[in-house]
Predict the structure.
Amino acid sequence: MILKVRLLMISLDIGCHLIVLETLLLLVLMAMIRTAVTLAMYAFIS
């Protein structure tokens, strides 16, 4: 019983870390896309 609870806690902990990692990756991707778009706009203007 105690082992099951411990496993559940560990899996929840890993899940939280994965969610945080995915959010960070999404933010980085969004920033990269935004930078690429701005660079493209500047290239078109000039």
